[in-house]
Amino acid sequence: MEKAYDVPALRRANDILEALAAAAKPVRAATLAEHTGLSRSTLYLMLDTLARMQWIEKRDDGYVIGVGLFELGNAYVRHDKLQAAFREGAGAFINQHNEVVQLAVLDGVQVVYVAREDAHRPVRLVSDLGSRLPAHCCALGKALLAGLPDDAVIERLPERLEAVTPRTITRRAALLRELASIRVSGLAVEREEVAEGLACFAAYVGTTPAGKRVAVSTSVPIGRLDARREKQICIGIVQLAEQLQRAL
Prior knowledge:
Helices cover 46% and strands 20% of the residues. By secondary structure, it is of the alpha+beta class.
């Protein structure tokens, strides 16, 4: 296997950005020095450069992620027209069902939320943009994994899977059986496998021109569901996935 080489300056900048992204409030330079192991002189040079590029911003006595980095990251869903197609389709879904719509990509064995359109009423969510979840426990992840052959899923996942809640599937064999059903129905469902009191319905969109494997979902509190409403929402999310596939 060919040896991979890092560019030290880029690795150090990434360490700083990851520390800021994980923090809920501005991070002091002293904390960043401890986290990254950089000398004070090197750290301040990097912080100054990142701030001038607007990748980070000085806030109070610390640093936060900057608007320039947000603009660059937003290109991930903008370049292949994914964001525009999603917003249009999600808006129609929300007008009909008044439930949140989420878009995610598969990254290894995790899903990463890349877009979201909120409903006109509050709902407890776990899908902040850029957040990750294990693919095996959420409907979006199951929809994305169902787009792969079983051999590829087996290569990625161990026999025993992490339990996020008591309802999470923890055996790969059981997950594979569920993925087979999803391939037939076109719909992935999970109830309280990620968060108590929340159900999620998802459908696989496909691979974008830029090579992203994407799926779309909606999350609904179980208390707002009955058999008729669940059927309507399931049909709506499958239709939305088909619409996005055509648009892309």
